[in-house]
Amino acid sequence: MLPVSAGNLSTSLILFYAHNCKIKGRIPNEVGNLSSLLDLDLSGNNLVGSIPRTIGNLQNIQRFNMSDNKLTGFIEDHICKLQHLGDIFLGQNQLSGSLPNCLGNVTSLRQILMGSNKLSSNIPTSLGNLKDLVVLDLSSNNMVGSLPTEIGNLKAVTRMDLSMNQFSNRIPRETGGLQNLVHLSLRHNKLQGSIPDSMSNMVGLEYLDISHNNISGTIPMSFEKLQYLKYFNVSVNKLHGEIPLRGPFKNLSSQFFINNEALCGLSRFSVPPCPTSSTHRSNRKNMLVLFLLLGIALVFVPTTFVFLWIRYRRGKRSPQQADLLSMATTERIPYYELLQATDSLSESNLIGSGSFGSVYKGVLRSGTAIAVKVFNLQLEAAFKSFDTECEVLSGLRHRNLVKVITSCSNLDFKALVLEYMPNGSLDKYLYSHNYFLDIRQRLSIMIDVACALEYLHHGCSSPVIHCDLKPSNVLLDEDMVAHLSDFGISKLLGEDESNLYTKTLATFGYIAPEYGLDRLVSVKCDVYSYGIMLLETFTRRKPNEFEGDLSLKQWVSHSLPEVVMDVVDANLVTPTDNRLQKGLDVVAAIMKVALDCCAESPARRTNMKDVVGMLQKIKIQLLAR
C-alpha cells in the first residue's frame, strides 16, 4: 500500500515516481500535502478507490499519471484547480461519470489521455478553450451525444482518438480547421451524415479512421490533395459513389472500403465498376487523347525535320538540351531525361517546397533515384540562391553533406540534381506520430550534423557558414545517416575574414542574436542555430512556438538539471523505462552541450570540434548503459 506517511515527505519534493511498483490500496488524502510537487506518477499499479479531492491542493503540479490502475468513481471538479497542469494521464482505469465542464478552464493542458475507462455523458464544449492541447484521447469509453463544433478550436492538436464510444449525429465541419492534426480516429461510433468536404483542409493528416459508423454520402474528391495521408479507413458504413483515384488513394488497400452501401471504382478496391457515367467519361477521355496525339503528330513531324536540318547546318548540340554545369563530376544528365525521370515535374513526385523552389523525386533510366531541386525563376533571389549553392557545393565533399550529382541550367530552367534521401527529413521524424526516434538515434543524427559543421567550419580551405540550420534541412538516407542540405543562403569566408554582413535573414527561432540584430554572420551563428536544433530534437518543441519573453533556450535552462523530465520529449523517457534516471542524465548532458552552443555572446559559444567530441563521449556512455 501507499502509506499515509507519504504525505509527510518534504514539502519541497517536486518529483514523485512510483511506477509499476505493485502498489495496492487507495491513494491517501495526505498526498495533497506535497505542495511543491511538479510531477506525480503512480501508473502501472493496483490502486483502487477514487482520486482524492486533496489532489486539488497540488497547485504547482504540471503532470500527473495514474494510468493503468483500478481507480473508480468520478473525475471531480477539484482537478480544475490545477492551473499549471500540462499532462493528465488517467487511461486504463474504471473511472465513470462525465468529464468536468470546468476542465476547459485549465488552459495549460497539452495532453489529455483518458482512454479505456467507463466515462459517459458528452464532450464538454469548454474543451474548445484548450488552445495549446496537442493530444486528446477519450477512446474506449461510453461517451454519447454529438461531437461539439468547438472541437474546431483545438488548433494545436496533432492526435485525437475518440474511437470506441457512442457518439452520434454528424462529424462537425469545423474539424476541417485542425490543420495540425496528424492522427484522427472516430471508428466504432454511431456517427451519421456525410464526410465534411472541409476535412480536405487538414493538410497534415496522415491517419484517418471513421470505420464502423453510419456515415453516408460520398467520399469527397477533394481528399485527393491530402498528400501525407497514408491510412484512410471508411469500411462498414453506408457510403456510395466513386472512390477517388489520385493522390493518397493510389496506395490505399481495398480492405479500407469494404462493407459499404454502393461504393464503386477500380477493381483493385474490390468494388464494382462505376456505372455508365464513368464509361462515358472514359470514352470522352480516349477521344481527347486521340485528337491530342494527332495534333502532336501534325506539329512534331515537321518540327523534327527543321530541328535536324538546323543541327546539321550548325553542328551544335540541341538547343532543347539544358546547359549542364559540372559539379566536379563526370556524370551528365540531359534536361529531357530529368523531365522523364520526374514525370515532367508532376505533383505526385513533389517531395517539398521552399522559399526559392521545389524538390521532386525522380528515377533515372539506370534505376538510380535522384532528387531534383528546381528553382523558381520568377523570384530574383532564386537566381542568387542557385549560384550560391553551385559555388559552395562544387568544392565540398563530406559523408554528412547531401551529395550534388550535377546542375542543369539554361535561360528558362535551373536545377540541382541531388542524391535522393529516402527517409526524408529530421523534421518529419520529430513531428509525425507515424515515426519515432529513440535517444540513441536522435543523438547519432545530431552527431552527424555536428560532423558536417565541423568540416564546413574547420575542414575547408575557406570556412563555410550554412546560415539556415533547422530540422527540415537535415535529410536521412536509407541507413538513417544524417546529411545537411540547402546551402541557398550560405556564405563563404574569404582570407582573414572571421565574419561578414548579410542582407539575407534565416529562419525565425534559429537565428543568433547578432545575426538578427546587426546581420553579422560568422561560424558562431551556425553554432547557435545548432544548439537550438539540438534542444528541439530532444524536447520536440519548435523554437518559434514560444511567446513573449520566454524562448526554447530559457525554458530548458530554467529546468536543468533538476527537472529535465519536464522538458524532455515525453516519448523518450517514459516512466515504464527501468533505466529512467540514466536516460534523464544522458538527456541532461546533451542539453548542457546545447546551452553552451546557445550562449548570447559569440565568444562564449563552443566550437563544433568540441561539440563533436562531447557528444561522442555522451554516446559512448549511452551505449554502455
UniProtKB/TrEMBL annotation:
Catalyzed reactions per annotation: L-threonyl-[protein] + ATP = O-phospho-L-threonyl-[protein] + ADP + H(+); L-seryl-[protein] + ATP = O-phospho-L-seryl-[protein] + ADP + H(+)
Membrane topology, from the record: Single-pass membrane protein
Pfam families on file: LRR_1, LRR_8, PK_Tyr_Ser-Thr
Gene Ontology CC: plasma membrane
Residue spans crossing the bilayer: 287-310
E.C. number(s) listed in UniProt: 2.7.11.1
InterPro entries: Kinase-like_dom_sf, Leu-rich_rpt, Leu-rich_rpt_typical-subtyp, LRR_dom_sf, Plant_receptor-like_S/T_kinase, Prot_kinase_dom, Protein_kinase_ATP_BS, Ser-Thr/Tyr_kinase_cat_dom
Protein name (record): non-specific serine/threonine protein kinase
Organism: Solanum pinnatisectum (tansyleaf nightshade)
